[in-house]
Amino acid sequence: MARMTMIEAVRSAMDVSMAKDDNVVVFGEDVGYFGGVFRCTQGLQAKYGRTRCFDTPISESGIVGTAIGMAAYGLKPCVEIQFADYMYPAYDQLTQEAARIRYRSNGDFTCPIVVRMPTGGGIFGGQTHSQSPEALFTHVCGLKVIVPSNPYDAKGLLIAAIEDPDPVMYLEPKRLYNGPFDGHHERPVTPWSKHDLGEVPEGHYTIPIGKAEVRRAGSAVTVVAYGTMVHVALAAAEDAGIDAEVIDLRSLLPLDLDTIVKSVTKTGRCVVVHEATLTSGFGAEVVSLVQEHCFYHLEAPVVRVAGWDTPYPHAQEWDYFPGPGRVGRALAEVMEA
């Protein structure tokens, strides 16, 4: 089986989808000849031509608005927002148009678009290249939200998203593009070529949207995470020597509540980790659901570990970033409660 980085897995997903279905089109800023700022679309224009993989003006609202119109006429656009931080001009198109087409048309129209966007920090991108806006999409009825944590999932979930009849927000943790970063920034990063989840089939396969995965079995405490924080949680549990069960959500909307409830019912404790700012982050929804469904099984309050309620600080990157030290302290807190 081939070994791929997450960049290569994302590119392979688009390649497979474009080869399978002529209605799949890829466009965005610099995704054509240049191959994207992270090279996720490299080679697609040369292979499929300028009518199926092409560059756009610097207009996020225009990119998404055009994709919605194309989808209404039967195409399947997979568009790139160069950084998740740039999606705000397109938010109106996403929430007022894309998310509502099926409902407003009584099912006569669907909106099979995928909006890809690199998300999160850890690359010294500062306040305008490090944001994690996933919670802004999970509040919107009609959207699906995916955050993969590894190349194998990245390809299978992206193909599933492209084949889905409704709009999917596909957030790619940029700090994971080349390796499973665990938050230990002082150490060399292990490349995906040396990780089991770097093994990726070259052909077509899908992973069901809305199904979480248990990355580490345990009985003492449940850690719920997604994206980069999955690897941070695994490192924190290992560093702390705690028998933690680590759940990789993969899909935030729809959410695999059954897997979360089953785990917390078993462990009686829960820590929720995400990179986005704490207040109104997606972790708050997870905590609420755990309290609602697992209250009589909890042996300690549910604890959140997240970014600060500030713009992402360039000068204090690793203080803001929820690393294994912060997660480890949270694990110790719930174990001692």
Rounded mean pLDDT score: 97
Q: What order do the strands of the largest sheet run in, or round the barrel if closed?
A: 3-2-4-5-7-6-12
**Share of residues in strands:** 15-25%
The SS-based structural class is alpha/beta
The largest β sheet comes out as: 7 strands, mixed
Radius of gyration: 19 Å
The helix content is 25-40%
Number of strands: 14
Poorly predicted runs of 5 or more residues: none
Series of secondary-structure elements, N-terminal to C-terminal: EHEHEHEHHEHEHEEEEHEEHEHEHH
Q: Number of helical runs?
A: 12
Question: Termini, distance in Å?
Answer: 46 Å
Tertiary shape: globular
Features:
337 residues, five-stranded mixed β-sheet, single chain, seven-stranded mixed β-sheet, globular, 12 helices
Structure description:
With 337 residues, this protein is α/β, with parallel strands linked by helices. It contains twelve helices and 14 strands. It has helices spanning 6-20, 44-48, 60-72, 91-97, 101-104, 134-138, 151-163, 228-240, 257-267, 282-294, 317-320, 324-336; strands at residues 2-3, 24-28, 53-55, 76-80, 114-119, 144-146, 168-173, 199-200, 213-216, 221-225, 244-248, 251-253, 270-277, 303-307. The strands form three sheets. A seven-stranded mixed beta sheet has the order 3-2-4-5-7-6-12, sandwiched between helices. Helix 10 links the parallel strand 13 and strand 14 (303-307). The longest helix is centred in the first third of the chain and has 15 residues, at 6-20. It is globular, with a radius of gyration of 19 Å.
